[in-house]
Amino acid sequence: MLSLVIGVLANLILGNAMIQTELGRFVFCQSVVLMAGLFFEVGIFSAGARVLALVKEPEEQKRAVGALVAAALVIGILFAVFIAAASYPLDLIFHRNDRALLMGAAALAFFQPFQLMIEQSCTGLNQIQRLSAFQLLAAAANLLILAVLALTDRLTASAALLSYLGGLGIASLWILSRLRPRFRGLGPFVRLTMAETKSYGFNIYLARLTGAASSRLDNLIIGYFLGRASLSDALLALYSIPQRLAAPIATLSRAVGVTRFRAFAGLPRIPARILKWNAGLLLIGSIGMASAGPVVLYYLFPKYREAAPLLIPFSVLNFFAGLFQPYNSFLASHGQGAALRNVAVAVTITSVVGLAITVPRFGITGAAWTGAVAMALDYLLHLHYYRKFEKKAELDLHRAEHAIDG
Predict the structure, then answer these.
(1) Among 55, 60, 211, 382, which lies 20 to 30 A Cα-Cα from 332?
(2) Residue 117 in contact with residue 43, Cβ under 8 Å?
(3) Residue 367 and residue 309: Cα distance in Å, rounded?
């Protein structure tokens, strides 16, 4: 929650100290980095989280973390090379002039894969305080760098992207020093993680990849369809501010999913109180943002007041995005990677097709409402697979009891 407050302050700096076109360039290039980063992980870190959740001895846990750190080092190097190499073709495809920006950020992009590795490691170990420290430190470092850049009148799209990646690098190095990975005797944990990747992690990878595509491709599609670079950058800026303002609605739900991951693995169903509290808080937050958000936008982001109508679809989007978080965490903790993959693929197809239809016709308003519809579908499919899992678990229990009686 503290990192959320820091994120709001960072967005205040970005929204008020940068011109719209520069903010739009930053949003576009950050989306490229985030989307590309997901392609390189192939489910290893998700599988590692499951391995860590099952390993009990502290020394073995450190070796399992060491195996994940070794994987992150290799992935980070490959990712940095990819960002540098992809900068030129991206300019050709999207008719932009961001090559120098992405080339300059390529070295620090090395740290992008470490974010998922650390988050998954802390989740698997149930070290939520350490996970919170990582998120807080990354946000605080980014805010400090942005503040210095703004005060010295040096805040550009390139500087903002370097600030984001630099904050991530600082936080990653600190938390890795606290996790204290061991690099001797990694063989068994590498083999175990790879086995989990094949049976579970790769499905989660596909789910995360397609899920992120449905939530991140909007920026790329807006950049592709809506005219020349300067126009699309201005529209991306208008789109991003209400999007970021409404994002905290679902954060507490994500926190519940993360903190309950290890506990869910030993439960036959999600406790009803979690679902009720989650839905109630989401409803309050969504209604509050839709009604009071325009006032906040008017006073805190006066340059973006015309984007106030987008707060309604973004509130709906985050309401449904928060609703499915407990179901997502529960299904993941029980190894239901195939179900999560199917959900993500269906949502991604719906999202991409919807964006391709609505963005050229309705612009950023169409993109926002497409995202809301996609998240509603995401929730309904999560609910479907959760109930399917429940029924199967009850049937298996009934069969076991019948066998014992027999």
Answers:
(1) 60
(2) no
(3) 13
